[in-house]
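Here is the promised in-class demo. Please do not try to memorize the tokens; focus on the logic of going from shape to residues.
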């Protein structure tokens, strides 16, 4: 036992004060969870009654005490007395008195007072909220005296020695050393003689443990269980995972259980057989055993358990299946059919990087397939929520690293949405409202089994002779001084363009820009389209130092044949903001085309988009002025080989990211609206109607393409396509407070009429398989190309070229969160949107020929071709002319056509042959007979 020694000063004070003044606080435990304790020691020479004493606690920065715990009994000279929180099993076993009111934290002042509220001793300072002793054990240094004024500054280091969290081995005996066995002692926990409850009985067959009463989150009493440790986790989950080695043979009950310890469980490793005691809890729907009192013992080391292959049974959701495996060590196989639905990236709920799997196929955005607000859309949203398994690592992943896949590589070892994940092992937990698999092994590239791999270029469709594409180029900016482009319209000066949060939304690093440029150019080169609509290119003018010129120059350098070179559409100066910019946003849309393939028919048209300027009140009564803008669209009519006209309009509607007036007044300004269409939906409806009206009088074929920031069955796309106002259960309305170029559009919301009747070309060609974007684990199309019925007749094929939506954002050009990860100039992850490529067939202009015979003699003659005269028109009179073309019956009977070589001549009087020579039938050939000679011209 430790020897109790006190200084002469302390002994002198003890003799001068009442006997109760001999009682001091000699140990303070502020441990994990409910591990709270106070040790009192009688420093006097005679026994002292505790009946008139109390322990008081002041919470946070209060200057008064919020909890009082009366003491009782007596304390002999030199002995110690432990008061502990009654919800801590280990400390309760040590304590002479327990109380659920002993719930202080490291910033709460504690005082020992007598019946007259005289302070005998104290820790902390009343009114001071700073942490003086958080997550520590404090033991009083020999010779220190009671602190009777808790309003003074408190310095724990002056009279106290600090020990690690959950250090209990000094409780029950005074001094800074551990007790030698007669005090509270160390961990002497044992399961011997206790009734064990198997892990599967704790888990049960439902979503909650059968031991936890309805309406409660924890079971009464302490439960003892035993099993083999399958994993130890200290970050995402703090504790270890225990599994019954044999189980109960019932697939509806999990054989595993998470044991919460609150901190790293020292001495516990996978493969150990452990017995543990604690409280059974439903911790935010995770069934666990709270053993934060550190009550466990290692019985044996038996070796690691084999993982159980995870299977999803017919008729159950993935969530249903995962509940059966909660707490267990599992392994994914091809039969598990778990595929990547969200690539490895940042999870804002758990605030860490992870990946998400779904069963059988990636989840699809509900409003991609079903009308917004419909029962079907709501049902799919619910189904998607139940079809997610988050793939985690215990420790947060470093930037650019997938811890369970060290072979991550931009060219070979990549992960694509849709890949089936095999051979992955880990334990199943539940947190942040989702099931999570904490991986315990490493994978190789072949463990990601994919049905659809990367392709080097979009598909070639038979008969195609013209391609039109849409591509969002992910903030292609050149205005940073490291790159040297012109400033965009929103920039105040060059410093603004170079600032970390300045007017430049793209990279400000020359090496990053070179990578971005190479990836975008390589993608456009492979697309090989004749007309391309671009989005998110910097709005810094149409001059040679703008981003658009920069991109086109670099793109043309990839093609040796000038016939493959591009140029860009430049609107009239009068249509440009400040005579130089397309609209007022930092980014713009653009059109590039190949002059060798298509010509321009008329001037480009800038379609001004609505603005919103309106004030409104939120449901909470807060008034706000809403001023919102959209990017202008660009429209150009192209002339084709036979004189046909194809009009292409490129647009980039308002994003879903920030709120508009309608979201503000609905109380959804900072949340995803209930109809799942995202914020500013009505504002995009106004844009769609504006675009449709601008195209209404256009003659010929029409394709409107771009990033509409709306999924296929959301209101803006239905306005452009098949919306039927008369039969619609849910009416589509425009935004309020809108105007265009200062002219009022809608003061209040207005129901729109029928849709404009365009066909969504990707939906027509690909059906439910169409998608160009991935967000929050769901696939859908924000990028569209809609066309009129006449252009539909020319479509040979449509492809969402999946080079971005299914790829990892880690391989994009930005190095901000990717550490030392090596990137590639390949086109994959060149943007966050997939290009949409429309292949068309415009019949070639018919090849026509003309052959003229001119008789400049007085004789009647017979024109001949290949020695034959036209038997229906054999004679050509003197000074007469005759014309043949590809439609002439004479040439049809001869079997010759455009481009063929023929022998041409004349017969005089039907007897004498005068040859003209051999000619190729083309646009205009003449055989002139003059005198006795014939010449071809």
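The designed amino acids, position by position:
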């Amino acid at each position: 036992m430790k020897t109790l020694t006190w200084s002469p000063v302390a002994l002198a004070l003890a003799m001068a004060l009442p006997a109760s003044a001999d009682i001091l606080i000699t140990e303070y435990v502020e441990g994990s969870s409910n591990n709270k304790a106070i040790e009192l020691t009688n420093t006097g020479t005679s026994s002292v009654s505790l009946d008139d004493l109390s322990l008081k606690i002041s919470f946070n920065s209060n200057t008064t005490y919020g909890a009082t715990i009366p003491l009782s009994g007596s304390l002999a000279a030199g002995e110690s007395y432990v008061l502990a929180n009654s919800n801590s099993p280990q400390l309760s076993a040590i304590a002479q008195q327990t109380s659920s009111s002993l719930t202080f934290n490291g910033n709460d002042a504690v005082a020992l007072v007598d019946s007259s509220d005289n302070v005998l001793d104290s820790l902390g300072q009343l009114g001071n909220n700073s942490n003086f002793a958080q997550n520590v054990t404090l033991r009083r240094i020999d010779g220190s005296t009671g602190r009777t004024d808790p309003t003074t500054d408190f310095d724990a280091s002056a009279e106290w020695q600090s020990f690690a969290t959950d250090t209990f081995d000094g409780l029950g005996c005074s001094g800074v050393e551990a007790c030698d066995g007669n005090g509270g002692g160390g961990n002497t926990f044992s399961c011997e003689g206790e009734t064990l409850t198997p892990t599967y009985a704790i888990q049960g067959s439902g979503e909650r443990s059968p031991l936890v009463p309805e309406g409660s989150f924890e079971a009464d009493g302490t439960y003892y269980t035993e099993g083999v440790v399958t994993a130890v986790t200290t970050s995402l989950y703090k504790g270890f995972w225990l599994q019954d080695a044999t189980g109960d043979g019932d697939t509806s009950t999990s054989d595993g259980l998470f044991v919460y310890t609150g901190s790293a469980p020292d001495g516990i490793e996978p493969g150990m057989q452990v017995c543990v005691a604690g409280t059974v809890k439903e911790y935010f729907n995770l069934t666990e055993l709270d053993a934060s009192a550190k009550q466990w013992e290692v019985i044996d080391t038996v070796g690691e358990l084999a993982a159980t292959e995870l299977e999803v049974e017919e008729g159950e959701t993935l969530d249903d299946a995962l509940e059966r495996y909660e707490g267990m060590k599992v392994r994914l196989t091809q039969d598990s059919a778990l595929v990547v639905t969200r690539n490895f990236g940042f999870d804002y709920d758990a605030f860490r990087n992870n990946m998400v799997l779904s069963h059988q196929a990636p989840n699809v955005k509900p409003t991609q397939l079903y009308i917004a607000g419909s029962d079907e859309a709501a049902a799919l949203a619910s189904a998607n929520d139940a079809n997610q398994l988050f793939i985690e690592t215990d420790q947060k992943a470093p930037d650019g690293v997938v811890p369970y896949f060290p072979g991550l590589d931009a060219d070979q070892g990549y992960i694509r949405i849709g890949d089936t994940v095999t051979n992955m092992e880990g334990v199943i937990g539940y947190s942040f409202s989702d099931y999570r698999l904490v991986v315990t092994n490493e994978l190789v590239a072949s463990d990601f089994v994919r049905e659809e791999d990367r392709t080097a270029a979009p598909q070639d469709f038979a008969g195609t002779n013209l391609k039109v594409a849409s591509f969002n180029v992910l903030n292609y900016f050149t205005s940073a001084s490291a790159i040297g482009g012109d400033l965009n319209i929103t920039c105040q000066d060059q410093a603004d363009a170079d600032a970390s949060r300045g007017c430049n939304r793209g990279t400000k690093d020359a090496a990053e820009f070179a990578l971005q440029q190479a990836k975008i150019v390589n993608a456009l080169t492979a697309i090989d389209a004749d007309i391309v609509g671009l989005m998110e290119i910097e709005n810094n003018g149409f001059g040679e130092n703008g981003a658009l010129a920069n991109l086109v120059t670099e793109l043309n350098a990839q093609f040796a044949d000038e016939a493959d070179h591009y140029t860009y559409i430049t609107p009239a100066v009068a249509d440009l903001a400040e005579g130089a910019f397309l609209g007022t946003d930092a980014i713009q849309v653009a059109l590039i085309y190949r002059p060798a393939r298509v010509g321009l028919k008329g001037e480009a048209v800038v379609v001004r988009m609505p603005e919103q300027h309106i004030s409104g009140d939120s449901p909470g009564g807060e008034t706000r002025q809403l001023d919102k803008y959209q990017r202008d669209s660009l429209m150009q009519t192209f002339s084709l080989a036979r004189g046909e006209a194809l009009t292409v309009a490129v647009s980039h509607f308002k994003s879903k990211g920030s709120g508009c007036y309608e979201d503000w007044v609905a109380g959804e300004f900072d949340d995803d609206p209930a109809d799942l269409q995202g914020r500013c939906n009505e504002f995009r409806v106004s844009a769609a109607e504006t675009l449709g009206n601008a195209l209404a009088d256009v003659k010929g074929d029409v394709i409107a393409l771009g990033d509409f920031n709306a999924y296929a069955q959301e209101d803006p796309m239905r306005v452009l396509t098949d919306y039927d106002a008369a039969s619609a259960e849910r009416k589509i309305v425009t935004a309020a407070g809108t105007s265009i170029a200062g002219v009022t559009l809608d003061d209040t919301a207005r129901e729109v009429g029928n849709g404009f009747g365009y066909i969504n070309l990707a939906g027509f060609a690909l059906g439910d398989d169409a998608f160009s974007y991935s967000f929050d684990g769901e696939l859908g199309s924000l990028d569209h190309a809609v066309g009129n019925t006449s252009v539909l007749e020319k479509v040979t094929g449509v492809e969402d070229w999946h080079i971005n939506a299914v790829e990892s954002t880690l391989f994009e050009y930005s190095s901000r969160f990717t550490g030392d990860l090596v990137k590639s100039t390949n086109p994959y992850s060149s943007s966050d949107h997939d290009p949409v490529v429309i292949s068309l067939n415009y019949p070639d202009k018919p090849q026509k020929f003309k052959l003229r015979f001119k008789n400049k003699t007085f004789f009647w003659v017979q024109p001949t071709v290949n020695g034959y005269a036209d038997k229906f028109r054999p004679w050509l009179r003197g000074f007469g002319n005759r014309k043949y073309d590809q439609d002439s019956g004479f040439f049809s009977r001869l079997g010759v056509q455009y481009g063929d070589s023929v022998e041409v001549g004349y017969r005089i009087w039907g007897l004498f042959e005068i040859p003209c020579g051999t000619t190729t039938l083309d646009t205009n050939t003449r055989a002139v007979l003059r005198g006795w000679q014939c010449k071809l011209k």
